[in-house]
Amino acid sequence: MEEVLYKSTRSRKEPVKASEAILKGLSEDGGLFVPDHIPALDKSLAAFSKMNYQETAYEVMKLYLTDFTEEELKNCIAKAYDEKFDTEAIAPLTEAEGAYYLELFHGATIAFKDMALSILPHLMTTAAKKNHVKDEIVILTATSGDTGKAALAGFAGVEGTRIIVFYPKNGVSPIQEKQMVTQKGSNTYVVGITGNFDDAQTGVKRLFGDRELEKELAEAGFRFSSANSINIGRLVPQIVYYVYAYARLLAEGRITEGENINVVVPTGNFGNILAAFYAKNMGLPIGRLICASNDNKVLYDFFATGTYDRNREFVLTSSPSMDILISSNLERLIYRIAGNDEEKTAELMAALSSGGKYEITQQMREALSDFYGNYAGEEETAAAIKKLYTDCGYVIDTHTAVASAVYGKYKTDTQDMTKTVIASTASPYKFTRSVMDAMGEGSSDMDDFALADALSGLSGVAVPAAVEEIRTAPVLHNHVCDKEEMKEVVKKFLGV
Ligand SMILES: *Cc1c(COP(=O)(O)O)cnc(C)c1O
């Protein structure tokens, strides 16, 4: 098998092995690690249609994580995709109104981040062993809600690791916040910051780039790594479920081998849709990649105009995990459409960080023809929830609803009737109030748990264990800090 090495999007620094890229998270020059080539699937689609999720995961991930042995990788996969998921299918498909909803929310924290974050800690500790790293790994994460809890759940109690999560104090749902602040595990630390997600993410990036801090930590036996979606250890496991979804459709006779499908992804940091793009480039028959945004429609504008411009008002929506103005993973796509040009990428990213915007070339725009971008406002999102519930009794969450609404626009715009998979990224029980309001069943007298019980009555789907658990759980984290204080907070927690 041909080795895949990982290089920075911003310079010609020496490429590193997969395990090193996973440990580092981000390249020292501030760039993201990208595979030096995208490997092709080496099994037929028919062969994939006979595999379960774990087998598919191995066949896909082995192509990227080429310095992991078969035993190491299979071991990581077995530890990740087990009974933590409430269905053996791991990522089941549900057909509703002519589209296939790929439910990526059956893991420990009922959002799609579990798909990657249940395996990342195992990839990381395996990578540390392989590289003879003795330091304790400190995971530093900025979250718009879902990553935080999924990362906490993944890393809590994992020996040789600590995890610090920063979230926007007023920018996550009550259930999301409760999930995080009730996290057990002496290696976990959760901090609310007075700012939005971009402030948290920028602050975390600054800490990663702080050489002085790095030195201080090294002396104390710590090293940083990232569980954010910029880590290739997040990206690679996300490719798996697109291959799996295609294979399931094939196995069920819904498509024929080689038939194209479209994919719709509710997008924030551009990690999930980038995984679909990689899957397509590995040879999976995907037609259009439909990028769905909420009112923070910076990506829609980018696809429409070729200019990425974050200078705009940040809008809080009912799909908070997509309330993002800097989609970090887009840098990997930029690099690719620039013809794997690190200088061009570095130039554009410098423009983004100084002036908040950049414009791609005409040639780069042409390379984006696989993508279609659109967005759904709050009313359209709520209407999508209501319609699916009324027409088929299927309840989707607000993020998935953005995708559903955008898919409707896509069909109207293009008349393209290709079979379509919609990434369903969270359980409706994670955003119960917004979902119930959209269904016309909300009530301000009811707390989130009462609403969850009512939703269960209406949808016939049991309240997930992840919600049951936090009903009575005590709050264990109540730290709040200013975005300027993040460094002090980290040092205090680590006792440096
Ligand atoms: C993180 C998240 C998204 C956005 O995914 P990206 O990979 O950041 O584009 C969408 N929906 C939900 C529920 C999420 O948690």
Choose one word for the global shape: globular
Largest sheet geometry: 6 strands, mixed
> How many DSSP-defined strands?
15
Mean pLDDT: 95
**Cα radius of gyration in angstroms:** 21 Å
Helical content class: 40-55%
Distance between the termini: 44 Å
Strand content: 15-25%
Q: Which structural class do you get from the secondary structure elements?
A: alpha/beta
Small-molecule binders: pyridoxal-5'-phosphate
Enumerate the spans where pLDDT stays under 50 for 5 or more consecutive residues.
none
- Order the strands across the largest sheet as they lie in space: 3-4-14-9-10-13
Number of helices: 22
Account of the 3D structure:
The chain is an alpha/beta fold. Helix content is 45%, strand content 15%. It has 22 helices and 15 strands. The strands form four sheets. A six-stranded mixed sheet has the order 3-4-14-9-10-13, with helices on both faces. The chain has a five-stranded parallel sheet with strand order 8-5-6-7-15, sandwiched between helices. Helix 3 crosses helix 11, helix 4 packs antiparallel against helix 6 and helix 17 crosses helix 19. The longest helix is centred in the middle third of the chain and has 20 residues, at 232-251. The radius of gyration is 21 Å and the shape is globular. The protein starts with 5 loop residues before the first strand and ends with a helix. 53% of the residues are buried. Pyridoxal-5'-phosphate is lined by residues 111-113, 146, 229, 266-272, 321-322, 399, 425-426.
